Amino acid sequence: MFMRTVWLIVRKDLTVEVRSREIAYTTLFFAVSCVLVFAFALVREGVPPQGASAAVLWIAILFAGNLALGRTFERERQSETLRALLLAPASRPAVYTGKLVGLVMLMSAAEVFLVPLIAFLFQEPLLRHPFRLATIVVAGTTGFAAVGTLFAAMLVRTRSRDMLLPLLLYTITVPVIIAGVGGTSSLLQAEVNDDVVRFWTVLLVCFDVVFVTIALWTFDAVMAEQ
Amino acid sequence: MPLDTRDIALPNWFMPAAMLCAVMFAASPILIAYAPFEGDMGVVSKIFYYHLPSAWMFLLGGIVCGVASVRYLTSGNPRHDRLAWAAAELVVLFGAITLVTGPLWARKTWGVWWTWDVRLTSSLVSWMLAVGYLLVRRYGGPGSDKLAAAMALFGMANVPFIYISVNFWRTIHPLTTVVPTLPTSFGIPLWFCTFTFLLLFVLLLRLRVRLEAQRSQLDAMYLLLDE
């Protein structure tokens, strides 16, 4: 029953997205704009600074993710479907998981375009270890989205949600930023240190496990009054 | 509906404890002045006697806020919420003292005002979490109590991750294991100041909880009048 609810919510979100393409297009465009801003700020005389691509990638993921999170729940609020979703005879953790999976899928789709673009603009071998990079990026995105989904859902009825969401999100996801940038930077070294890559990947996975568990536990309590 | 008057009357120990705290604060500069200078740091080493106790109160406030938030989320009892709010304000207060006195010490010891050392960075992020908590309480509108409680819970769970991730850079901050090995001439003023700060923490926490209890009682009285 749990997995079926998750699947139904993911399918619903993806169907709405495929029809409108609103979040995918706006998120991707915003992420590309961020990358361009960094390129204009950092590239001097046509030469990009060494190792900057890891930082640019994660900042773009964070900013674009924040935008996607806001819109995901704004859509539910505008069409008054969040209440229907919460009133449905489905467990709240399943609703949360469905939303989380949908969001990770959307952000991952944007990252598929973003990573080669950054590698191209900053002339760095980001795609030299595609599977390791994919593991780090997906683990980081999951951690970020795990915290973001919970807070975006809680803030949906709050007037100052646009101001509060980044405020909450960026402070709590500091370990994701550090580990994401650390892991990606270590993949850019001429001689990749496997222990360093493993350390950052394990840290990200542990963060995901702990924060998804806490979010599943708190989602029911904090959404009771929505 | 009967009004909840708990936490409003101050306990009998409050005034004597407040007076003791004031006397101890007045006496602490004398004790610190008589403590020997540490190495070649000169008078700057005296900052240590206020820096370390305020850092401990910063940590204690974070624990109180986190535990009270978890209890509020599980029980829904507003008393826990009031305690969490009061503790978060003290985290910001003692965190600010720690973050101001730390760089003063660092400038003399390490030659820089700030370094991305594990303790400094994790303290800064934890302090920002507490400031974020207060901003949510202030601007979050209805339901911000639950939101802030979840934030405190996430913040508490986040501390080890912040610490581990930042620790990957080599730390230069002195380890806390040096504290029990300090000679008596340093130890007496340090423990005196720690007890003074602890007393101040308890008094401020109690006063702040009382203020919030009074506010909620006032709200309840307005509701009763409307009925």
Describe this structure in words.
The complex is a heterodimer of chains A (226) and B (227). Chain A has 226 residues and is mainly alpha-helical. Chain A has one domain (2-223). Helix content of chain A is 82%, strand content 0%. In chain A, helix 3 packs parallel to helix 6 (130-155). The radius of gyration of chain B is 20 Å and the shape is flat. Chain B has one domain (45-175, 189-225). Chain B has 227 residues and is mainly alpha-helical. The N and C termini of chain B lie close together (11 Å). Chain B has helices spanning 14-34, 48-75, 78-109, 118-139, 144-167, 184-226. The longest helix of chain B has 43 residues, at 184-226. Chain B is built from six helices and no strands. The chains are: A mainly alpha (226), B mainly alpha (227). The interface between A and B is medium-sized, with 33 and 30 residues.
What key attributes describe this structure?
heterodimer; A: 226 residues; mainly alpha; B: 227 residues; 75% helix
What proportion strand of chain B?
A: under 5%
Task: Report the uncertain regions of chain A.
Answer: none
Average predicted local confidence, pLDDT of chain A: 87
- N- to C-terminal separation of chain B? 11 Å
Instruction: Give the overall form of chain B.
Output: flat
Q: Tell me roughly what share of residues is in helical segments of chain A.
A: over 70%
Low-confidence stretches of chain B: none
* Beta strand count of chain A: 0
Q: What oligomeric state is this? A: heterodimer
Number of helical elements of chain A: 9
N-to-C span of chain A:
23 Å
Structural class of chain A: mainly alpha
Number of strands of chain B: 0
Most extensive interface, chain pair and sizes: A-B, 33 and 30 residues
Number of domains of chain B: 1
Query: Structural class of the secondary structure composition of chain B?
Result: mainly alpha
Biggest sheet architecture of chain A: none
Number of domains of chain A: 1
Helix and strand sequence of chain B: HHHHHH
